[in-house]
Amino acid sequence: MSDYIIALDQGTTSSRAIIFDKKGSIISVGQKEHEQIMPRAGWVEHDPIEIRDNMREVIGIALGRANLTRHDIAAIGITNQRETAVVWDKNTGIPVYNAIVWQDTRTQPIVDRLAGDVGVERYKDIVGLPLATYFSGTKIVWILENVDGAREKAEAGDLIFGTTDSWVLWNLTGGPDGGVHATDVTNASRTLFMDLKTLEWRDDILADFGVPRSMMPEIRSSSEVYGEARDTSLLRETPVAGILGDQQAATFGQAAFDAGESKNTYGTGNFLIFQTGTEIVKSENGLLTTVGYKLGDGPAHYALEGSIAVTGSLIQWLRDQLGIISSAPEVEELAAKVDDNGGVYFVPAFSGLFAPYWRPDARGAIVGLTRYANRNHIARAALEATAFQTREVLDAVNADSGVDLTELKVDGGMIANDTLMQFQADILGVPVVRPVVAETTALGAAYAAGLAVGFWNDLDELRANWQEDKRWTPNDDVAERERQMRLWKKAVTKSMDWVDTDVN
């Protein structure tokens, strides 16, 4: 009897393997960070070979810590950083270039070229997304145009593309020796190439970008058997049966399956997803329309998404680049030493501004500095930036949906920060709720895989697993809440119009 599901979570900063039991409880975890490669301003890369090797290692760590073998595992689920692009030679398994990460902004000239006189919403009615450096489509173009020989090899059918779910799946199922080249609808919906209605690649858009159709993975549902693990003996013959992009996976792990349900993930960036059911809802307020999930032969379920580029990575920046903290938890200690931000506001537009502004010309700014301000105020302002950005996205969701959210389910690494969560509730004016199992991204991938092989029977069984751990309720000072938001929005305007022809 196979009593467990293993989820492979290929994230922005690390790769993890997490084993879950039938109640959705964590049995063991294997985790390993990978290098963040930043060759120049605005460029962010990962080494796909390092990711592949780390993924193999964390599988062994998770199984070893739980004293389990492949015979105990019913299925494998995959979740991943979504828009990060990998292009590799299908004959050798060797990438032609590093993975270009979703945060990378080098492709802005390609975005401008494709937008032309029509503008960045050229394809939005079809794919649900504006033209932006965020999505993987322009990253493929950059590789084809800038890596020697890549265009020729792609045209010859030797190169294939995938987001990191596809890279993990292909290597897990055999690599050059019959590896499955596929992705699911949620990841496909983040490329700029998939028609939201037909769930198929659009040949006309691929042609506009100059990307050969032969490079693209097969689009599959989020919950089905794609193949069996072959590459690693530790999981060989175990079915790979679920794929969900990380934010959709977190929503699934929160048991937010139906229209009107939502969650907000606090990770490297922040991502609020609001389910719209089987209806495709087009945003009028700067949100993305995306696929939420598709189970087997069932219909696709859609969602609105507010994507924020820099939240948790701002705390990493304080630690690694600025050096004012030595570890991430220290930011809460500093923030707690002051009663407020001292008039300091931190707009972390390191990759431009994502939702709801979509301003690639913005750059990071700290405003409101006086001699009174110290590192405690800067730490607090960094935390508060996450909450302010989330409030703006939630306001956009409320406007698009016409229904105000009454509470916000949260997950991700930053929800352990009580100071941030309380301020989030205060600035939103609604309760913020943390689940018992905070690893909802991996849990969502496990759920998708388990449903495909009958480990779980239906969505009601998954709903029954969800339990509340902690709830933060807002204070009632509406005037102060709106004063803070007014100043935040003023600060955001100071970050705009920074990038010029001679400024990165």
**Count of DSSP H/I helices:** 16
Mean pLDDT, all residues: 93
Strand arrangement in the largest pleated sheet: 15-16-14-13-19-20-21
Q: Main β-sheet: number of strands, strand sense, barrel status?
A: 7 strands, mixed
- What share of the residues does DSSP label as strand, in percent? 15-25%
Model description:
It contains 16 helices and 21 strands. Strand 13 and strand 14 form a beta hairpin. The longest helix is centred in the last third of the chain and has 27 residues, at about 375-400. By secondary structure, the protein is an alpha/beta fold. Helix 9 packs across helix 14, helix 10 packs antiparallel against helix 12 and helix 12 packs across helix 13.
Task: Give the helices and strands, then pairings.
Layout: E1 4-10, E2 14-20, E3 26-33, E4 45-46, H1 48-66, E5 73-80, E6 85-89, E7 99-100, H2 108-115, H3 124-127, H4 136-146, H5 150-155, E8 159-163, H6 164-172, E9 182-184, H7 185-188, H8 203-209, E10 218-220, E11 223-228, E12 239-245, H9 246-253, E13 262-266, E14 270-277, E15 288-294, E16 300-308, H10 312-322, H11 330-335, E17 345-347, E18 365-367, H12 375-401, E19 408-411, H13 418-428, E20 432-435, H14 440-452, H15 459-465, E21 468-472, H16 478-495
Parallel strand pairs: 1-5, 5-12, 9-10, 13-19, 19-20
Antiparallel strand pairs: 1-2, 2-3, 4-7, 6-8, 11-12, 13-14, 14-16, 15-16, 17-18, 20-21
Helix pairs in contact: 1-6, 9-14, 10-12, 12-13
Short description:
The chain has 504 residues and is an alpha/beta fold. 34% of the residues lie in helices and 22% in strands.
